[in-house]
Amino acid sequence: MAQVRPSAIGELLALGADPSIISFGGGYPDATLFPADQLAKVFDEIIRAPGGAAMQYAPSDGLPRLREQIAALMVADGMACTAGDVLVLQGSQQGLDFAARMLVDPGDVIVTEDPTFLGALIAFAPSQPAYAVVPVDAHGMRTDLLAGVLAANPKARMIYTVPDFQNPTGVTLSLARRKELIALANRHDLIVLEDTPYRHIRFSGQNLPTLKSLDTEGRVIHLGSFSKVLVPGLRIGWALAAPDLLARMGLLKVAADTQTSTLNMAAASLFLDRYDLWAHIARLRAAYAVKKEAMLDAIRRHLPQDIAATDPEGGLFTWLTFDEGFDATAFMRDVALPKARVAFVPGATFFPLTPRANFARLNFSAQPIEKIEAGIAALGRALHTRP
Ligand code: PMP
C-alpha cells in the first residue's frame, strides 16, 4: 500500500471539472456520440427478458455469447482465436492490474515506453516493480534501443506497450518495430502486454497488425476495450492470451470481482447482435478526425511556433513538446487553470523513472470544435505572454 499514492495531477484535473474551464485533460470520448437510444433499447430488452438471466450471476470468464462475439472481432482484426481464448474484464484497466499481479514480484522489471500510460503505472504500483524505459519517437517505441535495455535488465519480466496511437503521445509503432519487439521478446523469453483501447479509432494511414497476430510463441497478452468504441461506462474490456496465462488471469478475476457485470455484458452482447459496431466506429473515426484537425490547426495558428505537437493517425491525444526548461506543471497550476481557464495533463506524470517537465498531453475528442478553438486560443495568449 505504501506504493499506492494519489496521482499528483488528480487535484489539478478535478479543477478541470469546473464548467467554466475548457478541459483537454481527461481521455474522455465525445459523449454526444454515445449510442444512447440503442443502448436504452438493449438494456430494456435484456431486463424484461423472461427468466432474468441478465440480472443473474454469470460465469466469471464472461457471458459465453459475448466471448464469442469478442473472438469474432479479434479474428476480423487478424488474431486467430476462439471464445475460449477470451477473458472478459472490467475494462482493460483490470487487465493491467492482473498482468502485474500475475507476472511481477517486487523488484522485477517492467519495460515501458517513456512516456507511458499513467493508469498502467497506477495499476502496476502495488506489485512494486522496477522500471526500465525506452524512449519513443514518431514511430513508437525505439526498438533499436530495446535490445540494450533488455541486455542490461536480466530481471525484466514483461514489456508493456500501447502500440496504436499511444497514450500519451499519440504515436504508432511501425510494422518493422512490431516485428523487432516480438523478436526481442522471444529472445529474452518475456511476456508482452499489448494495450489497444484506441486501435480502431484510425483517421489515416494503414492498419498495422497487432503484436498478438505476430506472436508465434504465445507470449503476447492482448488487451482490448469497448471504452473508446462504445461507451466507457459499460466497463467492458478483455484479454486474449495463451491458455496458461488466461487461466491464471481467470483465477485473479474470481478473486477480484467474481465476474464483470452481467447486465453490462448482456447489453454489450445484444448491442453487437442488433447493431453494426463497425458502422458506429466509422462515425467516431470521422468525427474525431475532424476534431484532431481542428486542434492541430488551432495549435498551428495560436501557439508559439517553437512548440511541437504530434499529429496522430488516430486515437484521442496530441503531445506537446515545449522548450527545455519550460515547466508544464507550473504553467498549468499558475497560468493555464487560473488565468486561461484551460486544463491539460502536464507531461511529467507519464514518465516512470525521470519526470520531464516540458511536455503536455492534450485530448481532442471530448470538447466541441468551438471549445477546441477557444481553448487553444486562450492557451496561446497565455503562452505568448509568459515571462
Ligand atoms: N489503456 C490505455 C492506454 C488507456 O488510455 C486506458 C483508458 N484511458 C485504459 C487502458 C483503460 O481503459 P478501460 O479500462 O476503460 O478499458
From TrEMBL:
It comes from the Bacteria. Signal peptide: none annotated. Residues 38-378 form the Aminotransferase class I/classII large domain. GO terms for molecular function: pyridoxal phosphate binding; transaminase activity. GO terms for biological process: alpha-amino acid metabolic process. The keyword Phosphoprotein does not apply. The keyword Zinc-finger does not apply. Homodimer. This is PLP-dependent aminotransferase family protein. It comes from Paragemmobacter aquarius.
